[in-house]
Amino acid sequence: MSDKITTAVIREKKGRERITALTAYDTPMAALLDEADIDILLVGDSVGNVVLGYEDTLPVTMEEMLHHVKAVRRGSGRSLVVADMPFLSYGAGADKATSIMNAGRFLKEGGANAVKLEGGTGIAPLVAQMVEIGIPVMGHIGLQPQSINQLGSYKARGRKRGEAEALLESARALDEAGVFALVLECIPRQLAARITAAIRVPTIGIGSGEFCDGQILVTHDILGLGKNGVPRFVRRYLDINSLMAAAVREYASDVRRGGYPSPQEGYDMPESELEGLR
């Protein structure tokens, strides 16, 4: 296994080596991704709609996120574990002291190596303060799922000049504030290229094209695990749903016809111990 990935290692990869990132929500998946040498495991607030059955990410709480961060940390050794700060746990949803305390909990209690915040120029001062006291921060601009009620849709962002300029300004502000990496979600590939060239830290794209310094996707999406539809930018590498369904149907059939368990799949006791049992 390679050496432990740190935020400094991620920064140093810019322009030298593409960064790999995937989501993880539990110990077994974290261990699998870690062993596959994935650089970053994001414990995303996407756990809400991917695992917990919520319609979107907004209901996810600090305590739910901490629960999943701890599980992922127990399964990881090499990968950098990044915790998503959930809706209203920072920024406008909490005062500065509470925001910093919540971020610190992910490192102190959850064992995460860094946190991720959605937002642009407006949260740059908060990011700078977190970084100053030793909390590594990953930024996130473009489509921001936590702002879905304000944005109104999950469509790509930055297709018009004014919005593209604002995103470029946000990227520069977050870079100056000290983020170690910046997620670009669902922005035009040409704009992602401009941002990647304009800032000192790596960009990690999701639906933002091939010019980013790295890529991240939801693990369940690339494995075909779950019933959720997937965006156009997701490439499915496996169809686990079908494999699992077939296995479960075979198990159910074996039980119903008496084919499972066989004598070899049970335990025996000596005949002498059976004597006298009534």
Would you give an account of this structure?
- Helices cover 40% and strands 14% of the residues.
- By secondary structure, the chain is α/β, with parallel strands linked by helices.
- It folds into two domains: 7-239, Alpha-Beta Barrel (TIM Barrel), CATH 3.20.20; 243-274, no CATH class.
- An eight-stranded parallel barrel has the order 1-2-3-4-5-6-7-8, surrounded by six helices.
- Helix 6 links the parallel strand 4 (114-118) and strand 5 (137-142).
Which characteristics define this entry?
278 residues, 2 domains, 8 strands, TIM Barrel, alpha/beta, 40% helix, 8-stranded parallel barrel
Please summarize what this structure is:
This protein has twelve helices and eight strands. It has 278 residues and is an alpha/beta fold.
Gyration radius, rounded: 22 Å
How many domains? The number is 2
Q: How many strand units?
A: 8
**Basic shape:** elongated
Low-confidence stretches: none
CATH superfamily of the largest domain: Phosphoenolpyruvate-binding domains
The name CATH uses for the topology of the largest domain is TIM Barrel
How many angstroms separate the termini? 57 Å
Instruction: Order the strands across the largest sheet as they lie in space.
Output: 1-2-3-4-5-6-7-8
The helicity comes to 40-55%
CATH class of the largest domain: Alpha Beta
Q: What is the arithmetic mean of pLDDT?
A: 93
Alpha-beta classification? alpha/beta
Number of helices: 12
- β-strand percent reads 5-15%
CATH architecture of the largest domain: Alpha-Beta Barrel
Instruction: Characterize the main sheet.
Output: 8 strands, parallel, barrel
Topology order in helix (H) and strand (E) letters: HEHEHHEHEHEHHEHEEHHH
